[in-house]
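Consider what follows.

. . .
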Amino acid sequence: MEQSYPVEVRARLDEPLSRWLWLVKWLLAIPHFIVLFFLWIAFAVVTVIAFFAIVFTGRYPRPLFGFNLGVLRWSWRVGYYAYSALGTDRYPPFSLAEEQDYPATLDVAYPERLSRGLVLVKWWLLAIPQYAIAAVFAGGAAYTATGASRHAWQADALSGGLIGLLVCFAAITLLVAGRYPRGLYNLVIGMNRWVLRVVAYAALMTDAYPPFRLDQGGEAMPAPAPDDLAPASAAWAATPAAPVS
């Protein structure tokens, strides 16, 4: 029986989509980009503080966890609206909170305990294979995430690479045919989901190693209760969990 991964990324294709609005979304999203620039600086600082908290206490302070989760949520909404997916024309809210009615949502199960030893190596050594894959998907996210300018992570992690190329194809199709190809959409969301899982793992928000599995489509598997989280050494099966009737 497969256990769900604790980083849950969901999306809903918000049709009908405008044929031309994607041409100016870069301009419309500038206020968000400015705010996110500073939020990701704060994200890096909070992650460093959380690192020492985990080393000494084995716990990720809940207020710090909530802030970093909010930054991830905000970034995912903006990326989904803009050029990480172009999945909605609905302008994203300026909010760190969970916005259930927005077509892109993200959640991370809060871990009651985290490994004090694992935190020393997971964000750089253990995550190297994941960074390599995320770099292909997202265009250099792995290098930026491990470099000095951690606040630039978001700028690369949700744009460029294969994701950017596929979204470009989707934009052209949308302009010409007025529709978003469903297969292409599912693949784009799957790649974004992979990248966001790696970001959350590298930000020390979970000890569960990101699965080498491309979960396509907007629906993600539900996150487990914190007490049910598997350790980082657990092997994640590739068979989807059976739907609950």
The radius of gyration is 17 Å. DSSP finds nine helices and two strands in the chain. Confidence is low (pLDDT under 50) at residues 141-159, 221-245.
